[in-house]
């Protein structure tokens, strides 16, 4: 690993100079340092002060907050933005899906770019790209320009979070890493809770453009702090980037997402749609064949031979196809169907995040008692039924019922996501963790993007693409969409049937032990 320069611009001391300065000297090889001391020596070697080390989790946490907030803050503003851009609310699905799709395409190369160009340079570039994308989104005057700017935003977001986590892993000893990682997970929990409400407040009292302008001052402050406090880790020997794999995979999933978005809009003939669909499948199959015959593939598909990894990633993909459309459809139901304001809509969605936080208290014990197979099979069915239950919300539904349903959905969704995310690493070796993380993160963002596209596709069959004049039509169409998404989620249970009793027990026991400490 190479450390280019210290955070104050001075040349870094060599490891030998640091060893001598700390009294270790040549004989240190016979008396290995402990993990905490080793991390301190490495931090000193790159000129990282204690103040910078304490600030580092905050920097990464703010970046994660910005990236997570932008996946939820726009949901409650969909009707307002659609009206301002003079398009139908369902046309906004491309604005939401393009952001997560961009994350899926660029996450796999974030680790390579960090090793090649250095963590500080790439992290600063990512914040700059994300901030520029936010500014351009705020001044957009057409939906096509807004989609392009959301793709730019996603490109920056895809680099921010993985590179930030990588920097923490390389800075903190393992004994300190759990606390640092736990700290940066807080923004990921808070952002979905604040996003819908913040979006509603901005639309209600300011203007929808401030949803994007909000990122600009945060991004500029982040740039200053990154150059002052973030270390610049890089590698001397970097594996070659799989350019062919990136083109095949990126263009394949982008084209497939595009086909899902425009399907049913009658902008292309059935022959053209079939041709595009066949081309996207051909590109993805081409990537699979390419990955099997290259030494350094973009995504190591050989990990799918591991049963727990295959179940977690494939099952998570299919499950998220149903769950991914819920955040898009609920604001439409509340605002277009029931007549709630954007602020009220955000408040009705907020109990989901509260439920997710509540589940964290008992999650480890549930997994330890029931096991991953039992939890994922039963919980997926429950979530499918809860999604279908949103179809029971109508003009005469009480706020108490809506809040209770949202809380229950958040409760079981948290159990589902955490179970799938942790099971992916149950049987992977330490050397495979980085590749497993890239695949899991990429597939997760792909599924969210496709989920929004499928939700829009399903709804388009029942709700006109132009602004709906009759709330009853919107309610009826959205109810059918929820039922179909619920059925799709229940069907995904079959993927988890390949799990065996005892799979993932080591992970759940470790989690349970940590929860009990």
Which secondary structure elements does this structure contain, and how are they paired or packed?
Blueprint: E1 2-3, H1 15-21, H2 35-45, H3 50-69, H4 78-84, H5 93-106, H6 110-117, H7 119-138, H8 143-171, H9 174-205, H10 210-213, H11 215-229, E2 233-234, H12 243-262, H13 270-292, H14 307-323, H15 326-337, H16 342-370, H17 372-389, H18 399-423, H19 433-460, H20 471-491, H21 505-516
Antiparallel strand pairs: 1-2
Helix pairs in contact: 1-2, 3-8, 3-9, 3-11, 5-8, 5-12, 5-19, 6-7, 7-8, 7-11, 9-16, 12-13, 12-19, 14-18, 14-19, 14-20, 15-16, 15-20, 16-17, 16-18, 16-21, 17-18, 17-20, 19-20
Describe this entry's structure for a reader:
With 517 residues, this protein is mainly α. 72% of the residues lie in helices and 1% in strands. It has helices at residues 15-21, 35-45, 50-69, 78-84, 93-106, 110-117, 119-138, 143-171, 174-205, 210-213, 215-229, 243-262, 270-292, 307-323, 326-337, 342-370, 372-389, 399-423, 433-460, 471-491, 505-516, and strands at residues 2-3, 233-234. A two-stranded antiparallel sheet has the order 1-2. The longest helix is centred in the middle third of the chain and has 32 residues, at 174-205. The radius of gyration is 23 Å and the shape is globular. Mean pLDDT is 78; it is low at 6-46 and 510-517.
């Amino acid at each position: 690993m190479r450390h280019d320069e210290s955070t104050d611009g001075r040349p870094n001391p060599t490891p030998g100079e640091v060893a001598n300065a700390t009294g270790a000297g040549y004989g240190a090889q016979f008396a290995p340092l402990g993990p905490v001391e080793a991390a301190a020596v490495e931090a000193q070697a790159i000129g990282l002060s204690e103040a910078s080390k304490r600030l580092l989790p905050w920097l990464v946490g703010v970046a994660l907050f910005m990236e997570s907030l932008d996946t939820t803050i726009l949901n409650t503003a969909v009707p307002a933005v659609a009206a301002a851009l003079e398009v139908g609310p369902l046309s906004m699905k491309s604005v939401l899906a393009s952001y997560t799709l961009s994350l899926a395409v660029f996450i796999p190369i974030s680790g390579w770019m960090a090793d090649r160009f250095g963590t500080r340079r790439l992290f600063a570039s990512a914040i700059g790209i994300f901030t520029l994308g936010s500014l351009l989104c705020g001044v957009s005057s057409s939906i096509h320009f807004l989609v392009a700017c959301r793709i730019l935003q996603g490109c920056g977001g895809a680099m921010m979070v993985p590179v930030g986590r990588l920097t923490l892993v390389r800075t903190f000893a393992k004994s300190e890493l759990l606390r640092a990682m736990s700290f940066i997970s807080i923004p990921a929990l808070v952002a979905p809770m604040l996003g819908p409400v913040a979006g509603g407040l901005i639309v209600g009292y300011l203007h929808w453009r401030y949803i994007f302008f909000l990122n600009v001052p945060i991004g500029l402050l982040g740039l200053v702090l990154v150059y002052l406090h973030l270390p610049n880790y890089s590698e001397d020997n970097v594996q070659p980037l799989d350019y062919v794999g990136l083109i095949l995979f990126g263009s394949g999933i982008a084209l497939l997402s595009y086909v899902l978005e425009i399907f049913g809009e009658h902008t292309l003939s059935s022959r053209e749609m079939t041709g595009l669909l066949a081309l996207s499948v051909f590109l993805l199959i081409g990537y699979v064949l390419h990955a099997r015959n290259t030494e350094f593939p973009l995504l190591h598909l050989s990990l799918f031979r591991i049963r727990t990894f295959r179940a977690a990633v494939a099952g998570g993909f299919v499950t998220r196809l149903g769950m991914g459309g819920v955040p898009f459809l609920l604001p439409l139901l509340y605002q277009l169907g029931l007549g709630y304001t954007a602020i009220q809509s955000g408040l009705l969605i907020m109990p989901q995040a509260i439920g997710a936080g509540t589940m964290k208290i008992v999650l480890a014990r549930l997994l330890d008692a029931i096991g991953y197979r039992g939890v994922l099979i039963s919980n997926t069915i429950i979530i499918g039924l809860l999604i279908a239950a949103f179809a029971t919300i109508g003009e005469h539904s009480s706020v108490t019922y809506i809040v209770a349903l949202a809380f229950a959905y958040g409760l079981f969704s948290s159990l589902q996501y955490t179970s799938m995310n942790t099971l992916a690493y149950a049987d992977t070796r330490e050397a495979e963790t980085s590749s497993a993380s890239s695949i899991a993160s990429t597939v997760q963002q792909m599924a969210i993007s496709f989920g929004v596209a499928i939700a829009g596709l399903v709804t388009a069959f029942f709700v006109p693409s132009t602004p709906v004049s009759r709330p009853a039509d919107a309610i009826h169409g959205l109810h059918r969409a929820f039922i179909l998404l619920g059925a799709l989620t229940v069907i995904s249970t079959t993927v988890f049937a390949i799990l065996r009793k005892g799979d993932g027990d080591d992970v759940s026991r470790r989690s349970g032990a940590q929860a009990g400490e």
